[in-house]
Structure to design on (73 residues):
């Protein structure tokens, strides 16, 4: 068990961020967390997370900065 938190900042990308996010989720161990940093609230991602067995907590840091902490259920 590594119990680590990784940060993935997807702000300002030209390509859609979902493939990068999906790859990062695949790499998460049972006790690891992923902190996703985005420039908008990624509401469409929430159902995908639930379907894949993850829970999340979202924090609005600024007008254009959202942090979503993701971990396995």
């Amino acid at each position: 068990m590594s119990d680590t938190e990784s940060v993935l900042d997807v702000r300002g990308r030209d390509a859609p961020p979902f493939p990068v996010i999906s790859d990062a989720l695949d790499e998460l161990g049972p006790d690891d967390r992923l902190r996703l940093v985005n420039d908008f609230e990624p509401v469409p991602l929430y159902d995908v997370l639930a379907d894949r067995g993850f829970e999340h907590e979202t924090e609005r840091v600024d007008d254009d900065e959202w942090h979503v902490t993701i971990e396995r259920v």
